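User: I'm curious whether this sequence folds into something compact or stays loose and floppy. Could you predict its structure so I can see for myself?
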Amino acid sequence: MTIDRILEGRPLDEWIALAEFCRWLRVEPAWVIELVDAGVLEPRGPAPDAWSFPAGDLLRARRVVRLVDDLGVNVLGAAVILDLVEERSALERRLRMLERLLEE
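Assistant: Here's the prediction. I'll summarize afterward.
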């Protein structure tokens, strides 16, 4: 089952425990801890054994997995890439909204 199928119909604000999060991504907890240390993910909870992540973070983490595995980018590089891609998407959404307002 793919992450897209997992999230289908599932609220993105649902929280997933670290162990389940790792199972869906097929990664070790140490790798997720590295993502947290790099600022890619922000878990809820005081320590890794109590961490949980919003379901929407599965998509973000999967993008990092692909950047690391497919392109050989390190985790910190992947964090920068994700931030830039997400910022660009937000700017494009704002631009479309402004264009619609100007057309009215």
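Summary: The chain has one domain: 3-103. The mean pLDDT is 89.
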